[in-house]
Amino acid sequence: MNVWPHGHRDTLATGWRRVCLLAAVLAAAARGDVIAVKGQPPLVNTRIVRLHEGRLVCVTDPGGEQAFPLDQVDYMQVTGWQMFDLAERQRRTGDWHRAAGSYEKALAELEVGAEPSSATDPAPPAVVASDDPLDRLLLVKCRLIQACDAQGRFERAVELYLDVIERMPAVVETLRPRRFPETGLAWIDTAGRQVDAVIARRGADDVAASLRRWRATWPKPAASAPESTSVAPMVADVDPRLRAAVAEVAGLVQSGRANEALSRIDGLHDQVRGTPRADVFYWQGRAVQLKIPPAAATRPAEGGAGQVLGVMDRQDAGPTQADRQAAGPTNVDPTLARAGLAYLRVAVHFPGHPLAPECLYRAGELCRQAGRTEQAKSLWAELIATYPQTRGPDGTVWADRAREELK
Length: 407
Known about the structure:
The protein is α+β, with helices and mostly antiparallel strands and about 400 residues long. The protein has 16 helices and 5 strands. A 5-stranded antiparallel sheet has the order 4-3-2-1-5. The longest helix is centred in the N-terminal third of the chain and has 25 residues. It starts with 5 loop residues before the first helix and ends with a helix.
């Protein structure tokens, strides 16, 4: 028999809830940030308080501080900053592509107050107190420079780097991008104009002198370099929301959710302009390729590259009658043509993009799968001739794979 009065039971329950809440608050207060510096054991239960002159300052004990050069910090976690912490964990495992996407999302949240971009990522943006001494925007950009550089996204890395050194000149030597594109001089030209503009504006100061020395090491355009008139406008013109949306599409494709990715891509084609469209086409091709039936027809099809390229001016994401015509009059699955068109758009319209070699290789694979062996060989030969030793963002030399296919 229960001898407790009803009201007393309610009082006990309320008191217990308050005890649990207090315990949770105390536990949260006890948690600290984490920072791991090259050659040193991780520092835990610390607090990252500010970014100053290229050094990350942490409070370890009451009144005690330590500062670490940012370029020497391998890994960090900032309590309550979920998207940034996710990017750092991806960075730690060497997954630079996903890390860059997560950094872009964290940047978009700070720049425009973006809401969560999918039901699978319901966590709200980290709330930043107005008196927070840590410049989170600057910190994200610094980390994103390194992620983009590791991927070979030179133009984006340079854009971020120039923005960062305006506010923190101390990192002009330590955070500059180091991986020059092996081909695709459009990227070099675009980034070079940006750097030259900063040099001209700053005159003879130390930052300008450092940038001049750096520019002197850049690859020089070859006389036979392809024209880059189709590569514009610059990436800097892309809204941070759109950049984050492209990163989300990449994540959907990599997790096998092709239909969701294609649904997002439908809207992106009308919003993204210039070189970032190459990324949209690439992920469109990857998403469509996931949908190719295992039993796709492989009989030789009539028609060559001219037929396929003839419908490339369209920017839709769906297989229309034109796609079916491009696939030829035989039973080649139209999904093959649709994926191939997406890849060829990158190779034709954005030849300087880091993903162009991979797109040529994948287009050749699809042609072979469709029974167009000669067209596949032609695309692989073009890949070898145009990008003989170029590495993709993941380090793959796609021309080497093409050479294996042609043996």
